[in-house]
Amino acid sequence: MIGFSYRSGVLHAEGVPLTAIAAAVGTPVYVYSTEALEHAYRAYAQAFEGQDAGVCYALKANSNLAVIRTFARLGAGADVVSEGELRRAMAAGIPASRVVFSGVGKTRTEMRTALEAGIHQLNVESVPELEALSEVASSMGVEAPIAIRVNPDVDAKTHAKIATGKKENKFGIDWDHARAVYARAAALPGIKAVGIAVHIGSQLTDLAPFRAAYTRVADLLHQLREDGHDIRRLDLGGGLGIRYKEEAPPDLPAYADMVRSITGNLGCQVTLEPGRSLVGNAGVLLSRVIYVKQGLHRRFLIVDAAMNDLIRPSLYDAYHAVLPVTEPVSGVEIAPIDVVGPVCESGDTFALQRPLPALAADDLIAFGSAGAYGAVMASTYNTRPLVPEVLVNGDAFAVTRRRQTVEELLAMEERPDWQG
Ligand code: LLP
Asked: Which residue range or ranges hold the Orn/DAP/Arg decarboxylase 2 N-terminal domain (predicted)?
């Protein structure tokens, strides 16, 4: 993980020892590295240099304002899926003119907000949504620039819960309906179909499914042009995987070459919507050991982070490295242990039988590759307040979201009058 390394025996984020962050902010806490974020963004920019291609960062992966701002300063656009994310993008300095609005269930209110802001593009995923957008745009006297998200029926070969491009998935317009839906769009007032969008899934570690999907999209583009549609944009979605453990995801130059080979002569502006590959390996979740429990059959490392803070292991059986903040000395005994949180569910397990050096109460550990789909998927289950987020830059760090308090949680609720 770029941005994270042991120095003098202590795990650092850039120049800052994680022990210092734990002392100042407490645990659990998400820690992100500016250097890693910038490195990941620049890798995209460099790989696609010379192509008419733009990066719209998928905010859903990590929508902390300071993280978005880091990308905004490098020229990124944004891919958003709610009014909330649109407002975050704009608050972080990404103008709506660089924002793509995706998602299967945009409400009329969200459509209006996006059009008022001057959104670059809305990716439409159904005929009822298209009709609703036509009504909203017409009532405002504007034309909505849209891409239609098509479902290419390609197996992304990733975890079932994050595959989106098979015909049984809820996403996009069925391949066989695509031409008819573009015809419908052309007939509707307030709609201007300018592009085709596709996204087949997340954490893809092979180029082949991307290639298959993009080739289908290129075929569709030719058909649509023959049908008389002036399609000038291709939105190729996100999905490039990262290394959590031993995965070997395709490198960006190879991905960019593949994109160029398929889209280079199509006369289209290409949009990419990466999320995970920009932030995943730029963050850790820092946590403290509460107890080490020796059971009859197993040993348990009980830490102060839980499934509500990082749900990926419970939800997707995802692997996250467990890094002791104090560097293990070479030759130290390694033994398997279950790493678990304090929440009252067996699913609150980060790692089963993970080989680790002996750790004791109060020791710090960091869960690796936690920058994507970590803090954003957190909940307050078990009335555990949302944990803070810290951004490191060189020798400096800043709390970019403070720790929520129990008082704030309770203040949102009221007892009805009749309960006295
Ligand atoms: N564009 C669209 C339309 C998407 O649905 C997604 C992710 C992305 C872009 C960004 O994909 P990425 O580059 O991050 O793979 N919570 C899951 C991942 C869900 C991904 C949903 N869509 C996880 O923790 O693995």
From this structure: 37-279
